[in-house]
Amino acid sequence: MGTLGCINDMMRRDKENRELRKAGKKRMDETRYNLLKLTGKHRTTSDVSLEQLEQIHAETKARKEWEQEYFFRGKLLFAIIIIAVLLAGGLIYLCVQPL
């Protein structure tokens, strides 16, 4: 099969997969609707209040800042260790080198 045949085959398979994904999504939506109808639990609003959302947002922001600071300290410590090893290696090289 030539290049054109491969491209046409790939485009055909892509089109078939697109149709299969649409059909699968439709089936999942129908299944979800039927399950919600059976249980009788139609959730229209969130169970989380505005104050809880604000608290979650503040905690998330604090955690993100803590992680950034922790990561920065880790990078700084790594850089200091690398510099110390290089300096120690240089001093050892100078001390061992014959005059």
Structure summary:
With 99 residues, the chain is an all-alpha fold. 85% of the residues lie in helices and 0% in strands. It is flat and about 85 Å long.
Structure description:
The chain has 99 residues and is mainly α. It contains two helices and no strands. The protein has helices at residues 3-39, 50-96. The mean pLDDT is 87.
Order of helix and strand elements from N to C terminus: HH
* Helix content range: over 70%
Strand percent estimate: under 5%
- The structural class is mainly alpha
What is the radius of gyration? 31 Å
Shape verdict: flat
Main pleated-sheet profile:
none
Rounded mean pLDDT is 87
Report how far apart the termini are: 73 Å
SS summary, helix count = 2
Low-confidence stretches: none
Spell out the key features of this protein.
2 helices
Question: SSE layout and pairings?
Answer:
Elements: H1 3-39, H2 50-96
